[in-house]
From TrEMBL:
This is Acyl-coenzyme A thioesterase THEM4. It is found in: Cell projection, Ruffle membrane; Cytoplasm; Membrane. Belongs to the THEM4/THEM5 thioesterase family. It comes from Streptomyces spongiae. It is a peripheral membrane protein. The keyword Cell membrane applies.
């Protein structure tokens, strides 16, 4: 069964999403937005190490390999970890819009169990934008990009100013990210247009 709450349905006056002219080309890897990110960062040994690739329009694909550290039931991925993979994939879409945004709502359907060792093939796209609200949807499939759907989610991201992170994040991490000599990485830590 599936169906999402009314707050995940775009209003009648919502617009189609517009891909930023400098968004990565279709097929290009997005790379990590922050090396300490649980979803995509290379410095998190038990993280998801999710790799996202730009698609056409405001869409992308990503892959997540389920490791033993991601178990809930024996041999199966934890549902919260799968929700994290969907959240990270959906959050990465904002880089194609060059909008800084955070998840306000994430509704997930868990359709099939996901075994340890399997690769979850994720596909996500922005469906509409209305003011600060970004509506998006994602699926995760097993066995290949055309395999059966194991998880899916609808989400609402809310555009924020960079102050959202500066005012609320722990100062040591904010300072370190702000002082990163790599300009693109520094910008991407907060998903800001460099
Ligand atoms: C930059 C790098 C990020 C990329 C990383 C990707 C990782 C994946 C993304 C994440 O996991 S982000 C981390 C998880 N999310 C958060 O920590 C967000 C915590 N929540 C907040 O900070 C605030 O609630 C939020 C910024 C989302 C909204 O607060 P605001 O004060 O800015 O907005 P406001 O409450 O006025 O809401 C603006 C509109 O959005 C609507 N809205 C806000 N939260 C909602 C919600 N949860 N459900 C439905 N609608 C919501 C709200 O009703 C309103 O609609 P209207 O304009 O029509 O009145």
């Amino acid at each position: 069964m599936s169906g999402s709450s009314s707050s995940l349905k775009p209003p009648a006056d919502a617009s189609a999403p517009v891909r930023h002219p400098e968004a990565p080309s279709p097929g290009e890897l997005l790379g990590a937005h922050y090396d300490q990110c649980f979803g995509c960062g290379g410095e998190q040994p038990h993280g998801l190490l999710l790799e996202a690739r730009a698609g056409e329009g405001v869409s992308l694909t990503a892959e997540f390999t389920v490791q033993p550290a991601h178990q809930g039931a024996p041999g199966l991925a934890h549902g919260g970890v799968l929700a994290s993979a969907l959240d990270e994939t959906l959050g990465s879409l904002n880089w194609l819009l060059r909008t800084i945004a955070v998840t306000g709502r994430l509704e997930t359907d868990f359709v099939r169990p996901v075994p340890v060792g399997s690769v979850l093939h994720l596909q996500a796209r922005v469906t509409a934008v209305a003011g600060r609200k970004i509506y998006s949807t994602a699926t995760g499939r097993l066995g290949g990009p055309d395999g059966p759907v194991a998880v899916r989610a609808d989400a609402l991201f809310i555009e924020v100013k960079v102050d959202h992170f500066v005012d609320n994040g722990r100062p040591e991490e904010i300072r370190a990210a702000m002082n990163d000599p790599d300009q693109v990485r520094r910008a991407r830590a907060f998903e800001v247009n460099p």
